[in-house]
Design goal:
The complex is a heterodimer of chains A (about 350) and B (about 300).
Chain A: H1 4-24, E1 33-38, H2 43-61, E2 66-71, H3 74-83, E3 89-91, H4 95-105, H5 117-120, E4 123-124, E5 127-132, H6 161-177, H7 182-194, H8 203-211, E6 218-222, H9 223-233, E7 238-241, E8 245-247, E9 253-255, H10 257-263, H11 266-275, H12 279-287, E10 291-292, H13 300-304, E11 310-312, H14 314-318, H15 321-328, H16 334-342
Helix pairs in contact in A: 2-12, 3-4, 6-7, 7-16, 8-9
Chain B: H1 11-17, H2 28-57, H3 61-67, H4 72-105, H5 111-123, H6 126-137, H7 144-149, H8 158-169, H9 171-184, H10 187-194, H11 199-228, H12 231-237, H13 247-256, H14 260-287, H15 289-292
Helix pairs in contact in B: 2-14, 4-8, 4-9, 4-11, 6-8, 6-12, 8-11, 8-12, 9-11, 10-11, 11-14, 13-14
The chains are: A alpha/beta (about 350), B mainly alpha (about 300).
Pfam families (chain A): SBP_bac_11
Organism (chain A): Methylobacterium haplocladii
GO molecular function, one term (chain A): molecular carrier activity
């Protein structure tokens, strides 16, 4: 038909114009805005920290600053930074996730551990057990998790840092119990994951599965996450069991060099990370049940909930983080082999 | 958040399937059993969840319900959802009308391929729809280095969310209009042209008025999906609080923060949108059934 051509051209041109206009609507970024890409359970923590930092920064410089947050499974969050989310700082659940960003995207300097005190760890944590009230299955230690009738809820170690700490904590326990026998430690972890009915992608997902949906008998989880369930669901429904030994869990923080240089936010972002080491921030960590680097800065009643227990470092058992990640969680690693052996 | 469109959503099919009352020969108990099964199914899978959403939303009273909407993050989510729909729906409206018009009124090489391509978003999982944009526009993606160089942020920002939404709502308008326009044929347009109308004039005064109710109906469905889309948007959003969370993503975040009242309150907003859509859709079907159902009056 005659009229098809001119109209066709108009429409194609209009569609093209619209898509260009769309690409141009890049949100203008104010200088005084930071983005902290964090892992799953720190939602409540960074609400407090970000507000405290904004107040502190305003008092010191007069500049109004907004710190935005994005939360999700630690591995998934690292992936979004690699894919280009404009994060100024990352506060993730496990060192290997920051290593992955440094290795794949080069947006973080490979020596990030040396840039901040205590290898970039303003606080640490550990894994404890959340059980149903009265502990009906009698879970006291890691060995009890593989009792025949015990169902364990834990997140997927591929995507979740909490999931990886649980995995490594169980492995480390079995390794020490069996006189450093690697085969027996592997077999123990294999049995444990056969008793997991649901693998969520993040620690928060697992908590909701256990606490809200009522699945499983025991939730090995971040200490802070266990206390959060206490606060949200009431202490009459759950008990926290602190095992005699557990893992020294290291959720590190780092500056995303490439992004802050591009956005011109290096000064603010560095100040934000330094702020995490101040007494004020340290007290906030303890209040949210994370183990502060400076115990003296925390309130007595908060510290009382963080008892000294025997904590082992996974690096002491398995070597460097590159090795730990490769051996256990990369494609074809121990976790994948367990999956195949189980089916 | 319906994942695909059922054939029943197309009134053309619906109208032809409706049997005249006299055909029914089954005995009473067969009819009543079938009706009971259908009603029970609807109650269990549609009405009950809907009631639960509102019951949970108002569990702690109207005050707690309204408090969910006074949060700055909720405002940001509502605003972003409206912006997204305001760009995606007109875009798909223009595309859908032109595509349907070309396919229904002309024969050309690659016509069948075009129809298949338009259907693609229905058959692809929304997660994949999101991932393709990460693979194209992400830092490690095809256009990543170029975008970084020119300081353009597509994914983890508003443009990415709009693109993903356009993709998943792509077929709604075209799919609704193609059968309608095919049924109407090209006779009226040809008459207009013979009488000296230009192509644009014929389209505006003949084609468009013929499809207006079907078009409105399609836009309605397209809008509901644009505002409710979760999967594809979740992949490209980056979940930055107060910046890249749409309403469905905000619901998930609140739920994961044990904020069940606020979560269901925001969900009730989406459910309300669905109900309004449903009512307008029913009114349209009832009032303009003939116009929507492929110009039956002409035959």
């Amino acid at each position: 038909m005659r009229f098809s051509n001119s109209l066709g051209h108009t429409v194609v041109a209009a569609a093209f114009g619209a898509s260009l206009a769309l690409a141009a609507t890049v949100p203008a970024r104010a200088q005084s805005e930071l983005l902290n890409v964090s892992y799953d359970p720190t939602r409540e923590l960074y609400k407090d920290i970000n507000a405290a930092f904004a107040e502190d920064w305003k008092a010191k410089t007069g500049e109004t600053i907004t710190v935005r947050a994005a939360h999700g499974g630690s591995g998934a969050q690292a992936r979004t930074v690699i894919d280009g989310i404009p994060a100024d700082v990352v506060t993730l659940g496990i060192p290997s996730d920051i290593d992955a960003i440094a290795r794949i995207s080069k947006k973080i300097s490979p020596d990030w551990r040396t840039k901040l005190p205590n290898e970039g760890l303003p606080y640490t944590s550990t894994v404890v057990f959340l059980v149903r009230k009265g502990n009906p299955k009698g879970v006291k230690d890691w060995g009890d998790l593989v009792k025949p009738d015990v169902k364990v809820i834990t997140p997927n170690p591929k995507t979740s840092a909490g999931g990886r700490w649980n995995f490594l904590a169980a492995w480390g326990y079995a390794y020490e119990q069996n006189n450093k026998d690697v085969e027996k430690a592997n077999a123990f972890v294999g049995q444990l994951y056969k008793q997991v009915p649901v693998l969520d992608t993040g620690a928060r997902g697992s908590t909701v599965t256990f606490a809200q949906r009522g699945l499983g008998d025991v939730l090995p989880t971040w200490e802070n996450e266990a206390y959060l369930v206490f606060d949200e669901f009431g202490r009459d429904k759950f008990d926290i069991v602190i095992p005699p030994t557990s893992i020294y869990a290291e959720p590190p923080v780092a500056l995303v060099d490439a992004n802050v240089d591009k956005k011109g936010t290096r000064k603010q972002a560095e100040a934000y990370l330094q702020f995490l080491y101040t007494d004020q921030a340290q007290a906030i960590f303890a209040k949210h049940h994370y183990r502060p680097l400076k115990r003296e800065a925390a309130k007595k009643e908060d510290l009382a909930l963080l008892p000294e227990i025997k904590l082992f470092k996974i690096e002491d058992l398995q070597g460097s983080w590159d090795d730990i990640q490769k051996k256990n969680f990369d494609n074809g690693g121990l976790f994948d082999q367990l999956g195949k052996a189980g089916r | 958040m319906s994942e695909a469109i059922a054939p029943a959503d197309f009134p053309a099919a619906e109208a032809s399937l409706r049997p005249p009352a006299s055909v029914v020969t089954e005995t009473g108990w067969v009819r009543w059993t079938l009706i009971a099964v259908a009603v029970a199914f609807l109650a269990l899978f549609l009405v009950l969840p809907l009631v639960t959403v509102f019951a949970q939303a108002f569990a702690k009273g109207i005050g707690a319900y309204l408090a969910a909407f006074s949060e700055p993050d909720a405002h940001a989510a509502i605003k972003l959802t409206l912006i997204t729909a305001a760009i995606a729906v007109p875009f798909n409206l223009v595309f859908g009308v032109t595509a349907a018009w070309a396919i229904a009124k002309f024969q050309f090489w690659g016509r069948d391929l075009l129809v298949t391509l338009i259907d693609l978003p229905f058959s692809v999982s929304p997660v994949v729809s999101g991932l393709i944009y990460v693979l194209v526009f992400g830092s490690q993606g095809l256009l990543g280095p170029w975008l970084i160089e020119h300081d353009i942020q597509i994914i983890f920002a508003v443009p990415g969310i709009v693109l993903a939404t356009i993709f998943v709502t792509f077929p709604f308008v075209a799919r609704q209009l193609i059968p309608l326009m095919q049924e109407q044929g090209t006779v009226e347009e040809e008459a207009a042209l013979t009488l000296g109308a230009t192509g644009w004039h014929a389209f505006r005064t003949v084609t468009l008025p013929n499809i207006r109710w079907g078009l409105l109906y399609a836009v309605l469905l397209c809008n509901a999906r644009a505002m409710g889309e979760f999967g594809a948007v979740s992949v490209v959003s980056g979940h930055i609080r107060g910046l890249t969370n749409t309403l469905p993503l905000h619901v998930e975040i609140l739920y994961n923060e044990y904020n069940f009242v606020a979560s269901f309150a925001v969900a009730s907003l989406l459910a309300g949108l669905a109900l309004v859509t449903l009512v307008i859709k029913s009114v349209l079907e009832w009032r303009y059934a003939d116009d929507i159902a492929a110009g039956a009056r002409r035959h």
